Amino acid sequence: MASIEKAPNKGRRMLLLAGTGAVGAVGAGFVAWPFYASWKPSAKARVIGAPVEAYIGDLEPGQLMRLQWRGQTIGIMRRSEQMVENLSEINDQLRDPMSSENPDQQPDYAQNLYRSIRPEILVLNMHCTHLGCVPEFIPEVGAQPFEENWKGGFFCPCHKSKFDLAGRVYQGVPAPTNLVVPPYSFVDAENVIIGVEPEGAA
Ligand code: FES
Question: Is 179 in the pocket of ligand 1 (CB under 6 A)?
Answer without folding.
Answer: no
